[in-house]
Amino acid sequence: MLVLGLETSCDETGLGLYHSDRGLLGHTLHSQVGLHAPHGGVVPELASRDHLRRTVPLLRELLDQTGTGLSQLDGIAYTAGPGLIGALLVGSSIGRSLAFALGIPAVGVHHMEAHLLSPLLDPASRPHFPFLALLVSGGHTLLVQVDGLGQYTILGESVDDAAGEAFDKTAKLLGLPYPGGPALAALAQDGRSDRFTLPRPMTAKPGLDFSFSGLKTQVRLLIEAHPQPQHRADIARAFEDAVVDTLLIKCRRALAQTGLGALVVAGGVSANRHLRTALDSAAASDGFAVHYPPPELCTDNGAMVAFAGCLRLQAGERAPSDCGARARWPLAELTAASRTGVLL
């Protein structure tokens, strides 16, 4: 089965082609960072209009890149939520319309399920069910027990800011440019780990939930106490250390509680080098396996949507005839695949 995936949930327009036997054939991506940078964040109306401009040219580019014709498609997958409702409706409208014109099925994909499954794109290194997943991005921080396609148990989540959101807001406090998360991580590489120490929130008591908003307050106090520019890198390093240690502590705790032996890490923050180094070291010492998507597939992309959509289509799922989308869509509301054996 050859599936086209469309990702338009926020500020990246991504398309991908996934074949159930041949794997990922190719993907194209346009980032709107330059469009939103003057505003210091994503402007929903601008994002929607840019998706409209970019999707068809990117589709032509992807088809040319892979030598594929529209008539060869067996299905179309699009991100149906969660995300910016206007941006989601662009992808769902194009996906449903194209599927109708071609007479092929379409399916709406959950954005976080697509992220969760993205480390499984490579059949040579994918884990077997069940496994633990850490989904860590600008909008979500979740620990999930994954027993199968659509069989997700939320073990812990952020009670306030997601980790990626905390990175972006802390970067703004430090006067770093948009997008703040990568800029903060780059600055932290020049910082000393022994200069400042920030708390590891919600790690001193049992449980798997997260809280990152208080770290921003601690950073603000550090900046006020040490306003000199030479301290910025040390403050950035202290913040990154605190977030990475907190994520690591909770992952270890979840693995111990569930008895699972594999950890999947996905979402934009999963590209963070410090986090990967810490998790790899823990995996080597504790004896669990850790899996990531390739760095270029950590942020939003069409490849993960095509893959997740292919699995859902193989399980017999079909989207309704309308172009519906959901700005809010809890992962726990997803249904299990109606047919087993479509993966692994």
Automatic annotation (TrEMBL):
The keyword Electron transport does not apply. Binds 1 Fe(2+) ion per subunit. Its cofactor is Fe(2+). InterPro entries: ATPase_NBD, Gcp-like_dom, KAE1/TsaD, Peptidase_M22_CS, TsaD. It is found in: Cytoplasm. GO terms for cellular component: cytoplasm. CDD domains: ASKHA_NBD_TsaD_bac. GO terms for molecular function: iron ion binding; tRNA N(6)-L-threonylcarbamoyladenine synthase activity. The keyword Cytoplasm applies. Gene3D superfamilies: 3.30.420.40. One of its GO terms (biological process) is tRNA threonylcarbamoyladenosine modification. It is an enzyme of class 2 (transferase). Fe cation binds at residues 111, 115, 300. Residues 24-307 form the Gcp-like domain. Keywords: Acyltransferase, Cytoplasm, Iron, Metal-binding, Transferase, tRNA processing. It catalyses: L-threonylcarbamoyladenylate + adenosine(37) in tRNA = N(6)-L-threonylcarbamoyladenosine(37) in tRNA + AMP + H(+). Its EC number is 2.3.1.234. It comes from the Bacteria. Substrate binds at residues 135-139, 168, 181, 272. Required for the formation of a threonylcarbamoyl group on adenosine at position 37 (t(6)A37) in tRNAs that read codons beginning with adenine. Is involved in the transfer of the threonylcarbamoyl moiety of threonylcarbamoyl-AMP (TC-AMP) to the N6 group of A37, together with TsaE and TsaB. TsaD likely plays a direct catalytic role in this reaction. Belongs to the KAE1 / TsaD family. PANTHER family: TRNA N6-ADENOSINE THREONYLCARBAMOYLTRANSFERASE, TRNA N6-ADENOSINE THREONYLCARBAMOYLTRANSFERASE, MITOCHONDRIAL. This is tRNA N6-adenosine threonylcarbamoyltransferase. The gene is tsaD.
